[in-house]
Amino acid sequence: MKSDIRVCSAWRGRHDRPVYTLSSSCPECDAPTENSAPAPYNPEDTYGEYRRARKRRTADE
């Protein structure tokens, strides 16, 4: 699922908080925007089993 909400790509250097918009450029500083959604889940994650096992081991310590 692709998100329509975008965030200013330069907000850390130009704004004190993230600037969200639906357009391809920031309304405050005219910088390009990027997708604000996290990377999608990959069902073919070949190392997921090992990563989850390591996470469980470190949580038990």
UniProtKB/TrEMBL annotation:
Gene Ontology CC: one annotated term: ribonucleoprotein complex
GO molecular function, one term: snoRNA binding
Domain of life: Archaea
GO BP annotations listed: pseudouridine synthesis; rRNA processing
Chain intervals for the UniProt region annotation (Disordered): 22-61
Pfam families, sorted: Nop10p
Similarity remark: Belongs to the NOP10 family.
Record-given protein name: Ribosome biogenesis protein Nop10
Organism: Haloferax profundi
